[in-house]
Amino acid sequence: MGIIQMLLLGVGMAMDASAVSMTNGLVEPKMKVKKALLIAFFFGFFQFAMPLIGFLAGSVFTEFLKPFTAWLALILLSIIGGKMLIEGIKAHNDEAEEVETVLTLKGLFLQAIATSIDALTLGLIFIGMEFNQVFLACGIIGIVTFILSFVCVYIGKAFGNKLQDKAQIIGGIILIVMGLKIFIEYLIEVL
Q1: Is this structure's pTM higher than 0.90?
Q2: b/e map of 65-94 (b: 16 or more CB within 10 Å)?
């Protein structure tokens, strides 16, 4: 696998994390750089670690987990998105001027797991490759995810400043849709 292929794989794997990063920026438009870096780090790290775990665990572990990964992503993103949606509707109904949403470490951890758990099965395509090449590929995936997630937080922040009170509702809907997307892709694959 060449560097260009690894970069393209990294971009493809980063899409879910980038969308959720954008949602985080959308919902929290006054987010500091330190928090945006933390978000990017979490998503980048998990996108690096999951395929590596899948590779190291081999096909037995990832094939066993594969049916559950889509369900887990759907459940986690729906819970997080549903909570944001309810809070956004409540705040909108109360006609609050500004909705303050705080992404906790627990919430960020759950988002990172939900958006990267399907990468466990990516480790299967690395079976038969040398460990150094697999580590490099996972590293590139993690770095690309980190960069795209960081940029997407700021894209979300730009829209969050414009949307203000509707940002939390939109963010919740986006997270639920992301969970459904991952689940539907899994269903299409198995059917």
Answers
A1: no
A2: bbeebbebbbebbbbbbeebbebbeebeee
